[in-house]
Every structure is written in structure tokens, then in C-alpha cells.
């Protein structure tokens, strides 16, 4: 179970980052160029929202089936926080990624409420790019991509 969920989580991460990079660059580019907001911009933003929420759910499942969770009872919170690898997997990575998905969700719902192309694209550009930076900041780069 753990290895299967981890494999899915690991490969789904490529999809999350790919669609988020496309959505961010598209919104920044069109916003800077004063371009119109089109149906495909809506589809990219919605697809990114759905894909990132699925990764969040897979991550939560992985968190609770991962043998790493035992480090909390073995080492205690202090012990986990002292060790950079455990702190990343058990605290920083989940927390920062949850915050990043919240940014995508806020950005999506705010852009839907906006009435002009410029304000819609700006919301996606700002919130999705912040989420992208947050994801990239807590990817376990020593093991991924593998
Ligand atoms: C939503 C964006 C997320 C992305 C892009 C992402 C990406 C990744 C990547 C690339 C890995 C390394 C996989 C490997 O070793 O090959 C990983 C591992 C992990 N992720 Fe995520 N993750 C995300 C969200 C989450 C969330 C929300 C949680 C938990 C609540 C989570 C829990 C974990 C755990 C526990 C591992 C380590 C598994 C292990 O080696 O035991 N992830 N994640």
C-alpha cells in the first residue's frame, strides 16, 4: 500500500508542477500583454485546481501510511524537528503544500468573482505563482525527480 501510494504521489507531482507552471506563465504573460481572458484560461485554472487537490489527498493518505509517521512516537516532536529529513517529510512538506493548495483555491475563487480579463488573469498570476514557489521550496529534491 505505502509503496503504491508513494509511487502515485511521486508521478502525480510531475503533473501538478507541469500544469501549475503552464497556468502561472500563461496568466503572467497574458496579464502583462493586456490580453483577453478566454475559455482556455478558465480550463487551465480549473484543471490546475483539480489536479493539485487530488495530489493533496494522495499526500494525506501517504502521510498516514508512511512508516515515517512512527518517528513522532520514537523521537517525539522535538526529535523530529531537530532532524532535517524528518522535519521536511513530516512537517514542512505537508504543511507548506497544504498552504500552497489553499493559495490555488483562493486564487481560483477570487478570479471567478472578477469581472475584467485583466483582474482575472492577475489573480491567477499572483496566487498560482506563489503556490508554485511554495511547492518548489519543499520538494524533497534529493530523491525527486527519480
Ligand atoms: C500538493 C502538492 C504536493 C506535491 C507536488 C508533492 C510532491 C512530493 C514528492 C515529489 C515527493 C517525493 C516522492 C519520492 O520519494 O519519489 C513527496 C513525498 C511525500 N509527500 Fe508530497 N507532495 C505534495 C503534497 C503533499 C501533502 C499535502 C502531503 C501530506 C499531507 C504529502 C506527503 C508526502 C510524504 C509523507 C512524502 C514522503 C513519502 C516517503 O518517502 O515516505 N505531500 N511529495
The shape, in one word, is elongated
Query: What is the β-strand count?
Result: 0
Broad structural category: mainly alpha
The biggest sheet amounts to:
none
**What is the N-to-C succession of helices and strands?**
HHHHH
Cα end-to-end separation: 20 Å
Bound molecules: protoporphyrin IX containing FE
Q: Helicity range of the residues?
A: over 70%
Taking pLDDT < 50 over at least 5 consecutive residues as the criterion, the unreliable ranges are: none
Query: Total number of helical segments?
Result: 5
The fraction of residues assigned to DSSP E strands is under 5%
Mean pLDDT: 97
Number of domains: 1
Radius of gyration: 17 Å
Short description:
With 146 residues, the protein is an all-alpha fold.
Explain the overall architecture:
By secondary structure, the protein is an all-alpha fold. It is 84% helix and 0% strand. It is built from 5 helices and no strands. Helix 1 packs antiparallel against helix 5 and helix 2 (39-65) packs antiparallel against helix 4 (84-113). The chain is elongated and about 55 Å long. Protoporphyrin IX containing FE (HEM) binds at residues 6, 9-10, 13, 16, 52, 55-56, 59-60, 62-63, 66, 68, 89, 93-94, 97-98, 101, 135, 139-140, 143-144, 146.
What descriptive keywords fit this protein?
single chain; 146 residues; mainly alpha; elongated; binds protoporphyrin IX containing FE
